[in-house]
Amino acid sequence: MNEDDLQFDREHIWHPYTSLIEPLPCYPVVSAEGVRLTLSDGTQLIDGMSSWWSTIHGYNHPRLNQAAKDQIDKMSHVMFGGITHPAAIDLCRRLVAMTAPSLDRVFLADSGSVAVEVAIKMALQYWVAKDAPQKNRLMTVEHGYHGDTFAAMSVCDPVNGMHDLFSGVLTQQLFAPAPQSTYHGDWQSSDLDALKEIFEKNHQQVAAMIIEPIVQGAGGMRIYHPNYLKGVRALCDQYDVLLICDEIATGFGRTGKLFGYEHANIVPDIICLGKAITGGYMTLAATITSQAIGEQICKTKAGVFMHGPTFMANPLACAVASESLAILQQGDWQKQVCHIEQQLIKELAPLKDSKVVADVRVLGAIGVIELVNAVHMISIQQAFVDEGVWVRPFGKLVYIMPAYTMCPTDLSTLTRAIFRVVTQLI
């Protein structure tokens, strides 16, 4: 990759969440191996982001590589309408086995945002089929993030999220205050008071409540008490509202449990999965519900669920995803994530004493430092690169979600870099 390539990138390629007027610098990656990214000048960076939380097994994993190679020689893609194939069947077998027994009807999608769109459409069509079309709104909590497509945007935080400039055209949903009781703190039952009131007043028009279980991701990296999720499940049952758990960020072991809902010992009616499903190799997602809900959805005039992506159940993605889940099913991730959690707790704790730090929180393979003030993106990104690590902060948040395979030495390199960069902000 030469300077001409980088100039073309600057002039013609639009990167996520960036301005074409004042573009952020882009660092040219030419290869990746394990937990390291190699830049075009030979610089190696330890990746603390696992490519937006997806490469849980690290880069260039031999088993995932082989799964992709084996599948591409058979077929890279075939439409899923009227056709099935072994890669999709094997993947769905694994998903059904890994999730709660009632979650046994799998709809494969393209990305996390699409999985959320599918879940919302499922909920709306479910109530149409039950002759209750007035139940067509969604409930959620503030500080949530569920994706960048239109229905997904409508349930992201309406004020502090990334989509407030679209507020005039988005469906107006119902928002409760975000839970304040922290995962490791005391449970305050008053957290549920406002939510109970919204349920009581609005349940007749609410199709579903959608929530990120235990950890709110890009909306604020907030880690809340499991009793709140238990309360949400109970209220949904009481008021006949479906519960959608958006596990796109939390699924597949990231929080120390295979799925976030397991922290509260509840089961959602619909679950959205993505990100780590393929080990970060390519885009794929899944929305899973129960037989009873699935069959009810199909009792509308249409007689079918009205969704069908062109690349649904792409065989190449399914084959890699199935192998990624096979690696998880061996069980090593539990010990790996536990060790990462213990190390993050120990090594990030000193930052609590810094004047620039508002909070430090850890759960599973998630480490979050909330600053008092928002970061200056260009300078802090360069500072991390100079330290030999890849950390991508946003707003007031500096956080890492490393691959489960990261060794203690590399993780310490990351935490030391965070300490030095953050403390230099004084």
Could you explain how this protein is built, in words?
The chain has 426 residues and is an alpha/beta fold. The chain folds into 2 domains: 151 residues, Alpha-Beta Complex (Aspartate Aminotransferase, domain 1); 256 residues, Type I PLP-dependent aspartate aminotransferase-like (Major domain) (Aspartate Aminotransferase, domain 2, 3-Layer(aba) Sandwich), CATH 3.40.640. Helices cover 35% and strands 16% of the residues. The chain has 13 helices and 16 strands. The strands form 4 sheets. The protein has a 7-stranded mixed beta sheet, with helices on both faces.
What is the H-and-E element order? HEEEHHHEHEHEHEEEHEEEHHHEEHEEH
CATH architecture of the largest domain: 3-Layer(aba) Sandwich
Please count the beta strands (DSSP E, at least 2 residues each): 16
The outline comes out as globular
Count of discrete domains: 2
Which sheet architecture does the biggest sheet show? Answer: 7 strands, mixed
> Biggest sheet, strands in spatial order?
4-12-11-10-7-5-6
Alpha-beta content class: alpha/beta
Helix content: 25-40%
Distance between the termini: 36 Å
Portion of residues in beta strands equals 15-25%
By CATH's scheme, which homologous superfamily of the largest domain applies? Answer: Type I PLP-dependent aspartate aminotransferase-like (Major domain)
The average pLDDT value, as a whole number, equals: 96
How many H/I helical runs?
A: 13
Low-pLDDT stretches:
none
CATH topology of the largest domain: Aspartate Aminotransferase, domain 2
CATH class of the largest domain: Alpha Beta
